[in-house]
Design brief:
about 120 residues, mainly alpha, about 85% helix
């Protein structure tokens, strides 16, 4: 299960990074970016759920657990807000949305990196 969870978490990093940075470089929010955000969120949620099932009790209240929960909630808010902006065609927000996307991406990296460090320094 660890390998599958790791694959999902890594896929989340890839999808989310591609979506966020493509949006930045293309200078406007597009449908395919929003789809990639949702896929990244799905992968992260699946991977995190699997990791949580393998973790010891109390891990939710660790630094990694708290930042991980915050990151998933931010990713959910980000994907919902991106969907609304696109559906409502808020053109001024579509060209500035990348600022919020990059912020959420950087915050998401905190639990990703702390999880890697924890995984490398502890036995499962």
């Amino acid at each position: 299960m660890l390998i599958i969870a790791t694959i999902f978490i890594t896929a989340a990093l890839i999808f989310y990074s591609v979506g966020v940075w493509a949006e930045k470089f293309q200078k406007t929010l597009k449908l395919w970016h929003v789809i990639i955000f949702w896929i990244g969120l799905l992968c992260d949620t699946l991977g995190t759920t699997m990791m949580e099932k393998m973790a010891s009790q109390g891990s939710l209240f660790s630094f990694h657990g708290i930042t991980g929960l915050l990151a998933i909630l931010l990713m959910l808010f980000h994907a919902i807000w991106a969907s609304i902006v696109l559906v409502k065609k808020y053109s001024n927000m579509m060209v500035k949305f990348h600022t919020f996307s990059i912020l959420v991406w950087f915050i998401w990296l905190i639990p990703y990196i702390s999880g890697m460090i924890y995984g490398m320094t502890h036995k499962f």
